[in-house]
Design brief:
The protein is an alpha/beta fold. The chain has helices spanning 65-75, 113-117, 126-134, 174-178, 180-206, 234-242, and strands at 11-12, 34-39, 43-48, 55-58, 83-88, 92-93, 96-97, 121-125, 139-145, 149-155, 158-162, 168-169, 172-173, 210-214, 228-230.
Length: 266
Amino acid sequence: MDYELRKRGRVDVSLVMDDTTGVRQRRADDAKNVLVIDVGGTSVKLLATGQRTRRRFPSGRKMTPDMMVKKTIKMVSDWTYSVVSIGYPGPVLHGKPVSEPYNLGHGWVGFDFAGAFGRPVKVVNDAAMQALGSYKGGKMLFLGLGTGLGTAMIVNGIIEPMELGHLPYKKGTYEDYLGRAGLERVGKKRWRHNVEEVVARLMAALEPDDVVIGGGNVKKLKHLPLGCRQGSNNNAFLGGFRLWEAPRETARVGVAALTPKRRSKG
């Protein structure tokens, strides 16, 4: 289903969800083969419609978008896909990155993803994509514990990508203490305490009905904070697939697809 992007980057997903159990069934003529790319600070993970096993390759501070695209195309050369979803580790507005990622190389802002892939592309914040795949209804807060701290909220079907990780906390920010660097700096015991404290603060301030903690480092928690459930990194792929599911006729808003530009003759 198509998701529309509002002026501040909100995405309406209510039109793709059943009231109780999840994704509505797509009509056969609306089906697309989707390649989902989950871009992270340490690796890029790939999955396409009809494939059972995801693929991945290292990322890192030197990886540019052009490097990512070329490596992806080479790695999925035996897969069939007609459209692409990209989960991007930074703010996204109107389907385009608006700032360079902290843990990757430069050149992401203004990059022509659709032209590079030669297919329509939808780009969303990576936390928002995983949140979309985790959503069951109501008011949900998503926190992704990974290289950084990804955050997003969905309220009655509207995704609001957030940058809560940059809010001040102790001598730095939430991300400084809950991201990978914070875990390595203070150790698991203190890091777990910081996670519990930050989650409690955010729950008290935002009053969500549902809290999902995902990301690669959620497995390092001994126990989930009270009132939370564990998300799966596979939900990022589900969110990427949902971005292309056909909308109802009542849809008002959606994440615009970036399409390859036609070359002028002459």
